[in-house]
Each structure stands twice: as C-alpha cells, then as structure tokens.
Amino acid sequence: MKRLKRYQYERYAILCQLAYPDTPNTYKNVISPFHQIQLTDKYGRMSVRLLWQDDKKEVIIVFRGSLGLKDWLGNCCCFPSKLNVYNDSYNVHWGFKRLLDAPLYPSSISPDGKLHSLRQVLYHSLTPLLKQGKRFSFIGHSSGGAVAVLMADYYERVHPKSVKRVVTFGQPAAGSLSFRRKYKLHNRTYRICCDLDMITYLPPIPYYFWHVGKMLWLHDEQIYENTPTLQRLSMSLKSWLLRPITYHYMRKYIRNKSLFDEH
Questions:
Q1: Exposed, middle or buried: residue 220 (CB in 10 Å: 0-12, 13-18, 19+)?
Q2: Average pLDDT over residues 167-171
Q3: Which DSSP state fits 19?
Q4: Is residue 246's pLDDT more than 60?
Q5: What b/e sequence results for 84-99 when a residue is b if at least 16 CB atoms lie within 10 Å of its CB, and e otherwise?
Q6: pLDDT above 90 covers what percent of the chain?
Q7: How far apart are CA 105 and CA 114, in angstroms?
Q8: Domains, the chain, ranges and CATH?
Q9: Which of the listed residues 48, 162, 180, 203 has the most CB atoms within 10 Å of its CB?
Q10: Given phi > 0 = left and psi -120 to 50 = alpha, else beta, which region is 223?
Q11: Is residue 39 classed exposed, middle or buried when 0-12, 13-18 and 19+ CB atoms within 10 A define those classes?
C-alpha cells in the first residue's frame, strides 16, 4: 500500500471542509486552480464536487456529509440492504444506499433537467474525464465518506484500475462482512479517524458492519495504523482522563509556539 503524503492529506481535508456552507473564506483559494462540476440535490445543496486540472491525471470527487435532521435520521436507519453492483451484490447500510440513490439535478449532463440518482449522474459525469485518461480519487467526510467508499468500489468494478485512491474522514462503516470481503480497493483506501470521534464507531451493531481499507488514527499528535476498535476506545478514554495532567507537558507549549507569531 502506498503512503498517503502529508500534502495530499491536507488538500483532501480542506476540500472536504469546502463541501459545507460554513467554510472559512480563507480555504476557498484551494479550489482556484481546478476546473469543477457541482452536482446538487433537489434542494439546491451541493452533494458532490468534481475537481480536476488539465495537466494532472487525478480527478478528485468530494462527497458532502450530513446536513440537517433528515440526513441524520437517514444515517440512523442502519439496517442492512442489498446493493446490486455490476454482476455482484452485497449488504450495506440502508441509509448510505439511500444516498447513492438520492436524486440529483444533473444540469451539467442533462438539458432536460430531470432528476436522476447520484450514482447515475456521477457515473455519466466521470465518463468524459475517463476518456481523457484521468484516474479518480474519491474522498468524503462522515456519511460522505461512506458513500465515497461505495461509489469507488462500484466504479472500480465497471472500470478496473480507474480509481487512484479513496480517502475518508470520520467515516462510519458502510457495509457488512460480505461487502468487506468483496471490496476491491483495500490497498488504495485510507480511513482517517481523529481521537474519540464516536461516528467512526458506528453503526452500533457489533460484528455486522465492517470498515474497509487502512485506518490512520490521529491521536495525541501521533498517527497509529489499524488500531483495533477496543484498543482505540481504551486509549482515547485514558487520554481524556489524563488530559489535565498532559497539558502541563513541555511539548504542549512547544506545539503552540506558532501562536506567538501574531503577538
């Protein structure tokens, strides 16, 4: 498995933040070098953003996470549902399958303005870029990360070796053990978790829903790889309990030295 470089991580993280309406203006210059297509839902909210440059092979597909009560209620519907994918099928989280089937307004590819599913619209939007020899990085935050995983697996099945990597932030598990076993991109998937982010432990059905790919856990200013769930929970709780003491360590003061540049 290739390493995820720091500059790639930082760029992907900012692009995921830019999927939300409350993003600081200082981040928006990250998008300026790119061509882009925005796919919006029936409420006019951006659901997916496609970004690419003429002189680069990579196309970045960014999936927005949950916005509003309706999205969160859908995430809570964590019963299994069969997803049919290119001569195969497996069970996935119903709420995330619902997002794949959610209607989007494909103004960029459909002059009739009719609503089609996210999976259909995105597939057709990527086709011209695939013909240019581009490869695709699927990224997303929270439920957007789960949809990125499902869509990347589908696209890799239809067009083998077209997916460059999958990077998710704070992602809940998307599918069952059957999905984990059949997933095509374990060696190109990075699942990034931060400290005690409880969403990354969901859905709350032990041993039914499973994560895929390589986990990178950001904890106490270190990066841990593929830390077991119970160990991660134990280390997070221990760190939380000891935090008043650890804030006294000299390394905490050194970490914050850049703040004094402004004073």
A1: middle
A2: 95
A3: T
A4: yes
A5: ebeeeebbbbbbbbbb
A6: 52
A7: 7
A8: 6-230 (3.40.50.1820)
A9: 48
A10: beta
A11: buried
Quick one: average pLDDT of 180-187?
96
From CA 71, how far away is CA 43, in angstroms rounded? 13
The token pair that represents 158 in the structure block: 């239809």
Q: How far apart are the C-alpha atoms of 244 and 235, rounded to whole Å? A: 15
HSE toward the beta carbon, residue 133, CA cutoff 13 A: 4
Question: Would you say 72 and 142 are in contact if contact means Cβ atoms under 8 Å apart?
Answer: no
Place of tokens 């000299």: 250
DSSP string, 116-184: EEHHHHHHHHHHHHHHTT-EEEEEEETHHHHHHHHHHHHHHHHSTT-EEEEEEESPPP-EEHHHHHH-S
Question: Roughly what angle, to the nearest 10 degrees, separates helices 143-158 and 118-131?
Answer: 50
Helix (H, G, I), strand (E, B) or coil at 210: strand
Measured distance CA(123)–CA(109) in Å, rounded: 11
How many Å apart are CA 104 and CA 262, to the nearest integer? Answer: 44
